[in-house]
């Protein structure tokens, strides 16, 4: 049972405080938390569960905002962490992002959401589709009305009918003029390549995203061609676990609209679609840099939005960088971005240049790490494939569509 939730900014300021039970949690716990965070550094920010002198603390960090929950009683830590993640996801979806200013500008809506999502310390309603029926998302019209009428609440006067049904994530009596459902495989590739060009780590974090507009109470079954490659799967509450455990089939009654049906991880991949080869030489107060980018394993689809970003080392005074393809930008904070876009077929993109070091510095001792971005439409690099999608409880056969997208996640090339 959670007793209190705090939202903290990067500076340690309490953006929001929500007491959940009759037991009052003093705000001094935030000061203790922040003192420990400063004393122990970044390692403390990555601890999901912390034991303070008076409470157990659970923390989740999103976009510079720390979600901190407190309890004095024994409880499953994963439940608290999952709830905080769900709160962060709902706020990000409602507010169109997640930062300190957005939370302050929509203070009332954030409080109303927390009132509905947790009751007396226990998670209650966390499905975004049902929350939208209870609390209208902020928009320009609602803000103007709140100024004119003085009513700042977006709360509905009626309780959604789905809250009393066996499928609380779905609205009741749904009707659509055209029944359709779209399934997207969205994957992010995380890779680390060391200074010798050896692939140290390569894995994919993926999601099955569904956009459903189906009437009534449909029952869907989704199967994959090769589920053996999947690890660390997580499901939306609508998924029935028994069919998956016995036959690796996703059986579910979908929420209406967009939602994340499943997330997964695929480990120990052997190759990446593109290569980035840096070469750096440093001597006599200057540093020569050369960077090549090309296709290593052709995925069969065009690779778009290729870009390379890196931070100039602290002792670099100035930089002169040029490329034979794309554009190179150097920002005031010494961040360099090379935007390539789509890889050309007739040449290999390269960037060369010279870095001038500070006076008295003969050579570089700290070399940059290159962060690579790309996007490939129409292919899932993990090899995961959707086999079929079947429907029940629908009067007519709906239209269905499938898409795949792979993009770079934490893709690092070290030099």
UniProtKB/TrEMBL annotation:
Q: Which UniProt keywords apply?
A: Membrane, Protein transport, Transport
- From which organism does this entry originate? Solanum stoloniferum
Q: Pinpoint the MHD domain residues.
A: 178-414
Q: Where in the cell is it found?
A: Endomembrane system
GO terms classed as biological process: intracellular protein transport
Q: Where is the signal peptide?
A: none
| Family label | Belongs to the adaptor complexes medium subunit family.
Q: Which GO terms describe its cellular component?
A: clathrin adaptor complex; endomembrane system
Q: Which Pfam families match?
A: Adap_comp_sub (PF00928)
Q: What is this protein called?
A: MHD domain-containing protein
Q: Does the keyword Protein transport apply?
A: yes
Q: Which residues form a coiled coil?
A: none
Main localization category? membrane
Give the source's domain of life in one word.
Eukaryota
Output the SUPFAM superfamilies linked to this UniProt entry: Second domain of Mu2 adaptin subunit (ap50) of ap2 adaptor, SNARE-like
């Amino acid at each position: 049972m959670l007793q209190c939730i705090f939202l903290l900014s990067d500076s340690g300021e309490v953006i929001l405080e929500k007491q959940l039970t009759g037991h009052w949690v003093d705000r001094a716990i935030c000061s203790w938390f922040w003192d420990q965070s400063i004393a122990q550094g970044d390692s403390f920010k990555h601890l999901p569960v912390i034991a303070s002198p008076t409470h157990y603390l659970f923390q989740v960090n999103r976009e510079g905002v720390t979600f901190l929950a407190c309890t004095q009683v024994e409880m499953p830590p994963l439940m608290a962490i999952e709830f905080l993640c769900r709160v962060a996801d709902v706020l990000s979806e409602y507010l169109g992002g997640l930062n300190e200013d957005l939370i302050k500008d929509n203070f009332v809506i954030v409080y109303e959401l927390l009132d509905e999502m947790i009751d007396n310390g226990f998670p209650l309603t966390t499905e975004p589709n049902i929350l939208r029926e209870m609390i209208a998302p902020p928009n320009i019209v609602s803000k103007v009305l709140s100024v004119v009428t003085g009513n700042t609440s977006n709360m509905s006067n009626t309780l959604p009918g789905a809250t009393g049904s066996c499928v609380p994530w779905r609205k009741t009596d749904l009707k659509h003029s055209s029944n359709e459902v779209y399934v997207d495989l969205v994957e992010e590739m995380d890779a680390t390549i060391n200074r010798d060009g050896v692939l140290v780590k390569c894995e994919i974090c993926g999601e099955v995203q569904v956009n459903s507009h189906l009437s009534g109470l449909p029952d869907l079954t989704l199967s994959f061609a090769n589920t053996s490659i999947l690890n660390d799967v997580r499901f939306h509450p609508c998924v029935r676990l028994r069919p998956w455990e016995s036959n690796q089939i996703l059986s579910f009654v979908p929420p209406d609209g967009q939602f994340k049906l499943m997330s997964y991880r695929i480990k120990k991949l052997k190759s990446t679609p593109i290569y980035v080869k840096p070469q750096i030489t440093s001597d006599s107060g200057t540093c020569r840099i050369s960077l090549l980018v090309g296709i290593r394993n052709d995925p069969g689809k065009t690779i778009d939005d290729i870009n390379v970003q890196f931070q100039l080392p602290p002792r670099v005074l100035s930089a002169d960088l040029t490329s034979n393809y794309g554009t190179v930008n150097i920002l005031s904070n010494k961040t360099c971005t090379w935007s390539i876009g789509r890889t050309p077929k007739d040449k290999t993109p390269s960037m060369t240049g010279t870095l001038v070091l500070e006076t008295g510095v003969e050579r570089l001792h700290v070399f940059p790490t290159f962060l690579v971005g790309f996007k490939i439409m129409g292919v899932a690099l993990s090899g995961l494939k959707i086999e079929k999608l079947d429907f029940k409880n629908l009067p007519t056969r709906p239209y269905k569509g499938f898409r795949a997208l792979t993009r770079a996640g934490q893709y690092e090339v070290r030099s």
